[in-house]
Amino acid sequence: MSVQTASPQFSPASTKQDRYPTRLSHTPTTLWQDRQEAVVKGHHLDGPLTREQLEGFERDGFLFEPDFLEPNELEALNAELAALLARPDFLDRDFAITESGSREIRSLFAVHHLSERFDRLANDARLMGRARQIVGGDVYVHQSRINYKPGFHGKGFDWHSDFETWHAEDGMPEMHAISASIVLTDNHHFNGPLMLIPGSHKCFVHCLGETPDENHKQSLKQQEVGVPSNDALRELIERNGIQAPTGAAGGLLMFDCNTLHGSNANMSPDPRSNAFFVYNRRDNACVEPFAARQSRPSFLAHQPDEEWAPQPGQH
User: Fold this and answer.
1) What pLDDT digit, counting tens, does each position of 252-265 carry?
2) Which has the closest alpha carbon to 169: 273, 284, 298, 48?
3) Is residue 102 pLDDT above 80, yes or no?
4) Which residue of 148, 170, 171, 185 has the fewest CB atoms within a 10 Å radius of its CB?
């Protein structure tokens, strides 16, 4: 499809060209525009991913590797997860997101700054090497979190592109980022696994609506702005379907920053947990947001080599 050139709702302070206008004030003439960057940019780089794996990622926009973690690693990470979720001093902090209408933590952000164990995992050469091969250069951790979807009560997330949010609200200029999700509990079809639309990473879907101030306070619980239209979703799903990689704890799911994904509520008694790291290419560091008046807090969008720590009494 042709590139949509409609202007975003706001004019960013940055002079960086906006290649992906979104949060539009009117319905665009096309459902999406073509992606303007290559998907896999590091074919020439040595790393842990094979040529076949890179070709699969190029085609689908994601790659699932079972048994990524050793059993002893998995056990230690789950123990650390339980300890972090049980800390009473994390409740009512801005980096700890609770379920709507509940005090139960669903996401804990900046986890590689909160935990030495998760920091080592975020900087593990196995993850860094994979990310570097895909984005084609040195990377840093743009965002980290642990997600916890409790049995019976864990809510889902609507379809969205992470890049759309990171571009609009964080100021990420281009699609040079990759997400790594490590499955910490068994993933099956009934506990709300991540669902992805293969091939959707090659289409940037324009979204409608002005970004409210401090939108993250609502969107991290239920996203209402920055979601693709039903027409765009219907056409993309009719083309390539939906996939939901499932498997035993310890697997690794890597997906492109622009792959459309979402999840259902957890309808089973089994919790679903994962550790989530976003690797952004260093020369793609965030500027001023492209479709919001203010940048989101730094616990959601780190800059290269940024030191971060929760402030006492931070809310």
Assistant:
1) 999 999 999 998 88
2) 298
3) no
4) 185
Q: 3-state DSSP call for residue 80?
A: helix
Q: Which residues contact 144 (CB under 8 A, 6 or more apart)?
A: 109, 110, 111, 112, 113, 118, 122, 275, 276, 277, 278
List, in order, residues 6 or more apart from 39 with CB less than 8 Å away: 57, 58, 61, 134, 201, 202, 256
Of the chain, the percentage scoring pLDDT greater than 90 comes to 67
pTM of the predicted protein model: 0.90
* Count of Cβ atoms closer than 10 Å to residue 125 Cβ: 10
Q: How many alpha carbons fall within 13 Å on the CB side of residue 44?
A: 3
Task: Write out the DSSP string of 189-232.
Answer: TTS--EEE-TTGGGEEE--BSPPPTTTHHHHTTS--SS---HHH
Report d(CA 224, CA 145) in Å as an integer: 21
Name every residue whose Cβ is closer than 8 Å to that of residue 50 and which is 6 or more positions away in sequence. none
Token pair, residue 106, equals 């669903």
Residues 288, 295: Cα–Cα separation, whole Å? 7
| Inter-residue contact 133 to 248 (CB < 8 Å) | no
Please give the angle made by the CA atoms of 244, 56 and 126, to the nearest 5 degrees: 85
> Confidence band (pLDDT; 50, 70, 90) for 216?
confident
Residue 100's pLDDT is what? Answer: 67
Q: What angle do CA 104, 110, 116 make, to 5 degrees?
A: 105
Q: Cα angle vertex 123, ends 119, 128, to 5°?
A: 150
- Token digits for 193? 């696994």
User: What is residue 146's predicted lDDT score, i.e. its pLDDT?
Assistant: 92
Question: Which domains does the chain possess?
Answer: 32-284 (2.60.120.620)
Task: Please list, in sequence order, all residues whose beta carbon lies within 8 angstroms of the beta carbon of residue 59, skipping any fewer than 6 positions away.
Answer: 198, 199
